[in-house]
# Entry
Amino acid sequence: MASTASRSAFLLFPIILFTASVPHLVSSFQFEVGEEGGWKIPTGEEPETYNEWAAENRFQIGDTLHFKYQNDSVLVVSSADYLNCNTANPISVFKDGSSVFQFDRSGFYYFMSGKPGHCKSGQRLIIRVMHPSEIGVPSSAPAPAPAPADGADGGGSDYLDWGPPAGVNSGIIKLDVVSFSTIGLCGLLYLFI
# Structure
């Protein structure tokens, strides 16, 4: 009987070890840009600008942005085009009034309205999508985005300097070593019980 239990534990141990060492699967989340107001020129009566809203959220690969708008468009642009409100060379264009954009990589994404003058009036957005190594490590959470340099327009070169805080990778490695060691010890205890 004891040999059957030991054998079952021995066979179960690799499954437990693999399951515990695989990163947690996170389902994607859809963010509503502009919430009830949708994608439009800020009037100054909003409690926050688009970039202030983005700084309060954590975006991950697989998450989506939902833009709701009328008589407008959404452009995905480069950082230089974002800073200069240049609509001439968009990476992607959405014009259907209800557009969903999915993040397929970590890093920065730059959005703006395609209507003349809307970008300079504050209808633009920078999103920082976290790298998978940053997810689930509370002590290494990314710092909030800086406030817009020129008020509500979200401009300024400070946005190009966003990034994970120093030491994120070393903290993750330490956490992985501790987690792996703890799981291994628990597995060994299970074998001998």
User: Anything to note?
Assistant: The helical segments are 2-21, 50-55, 79-84, 168-192. The radius of gyration is 23 Å.
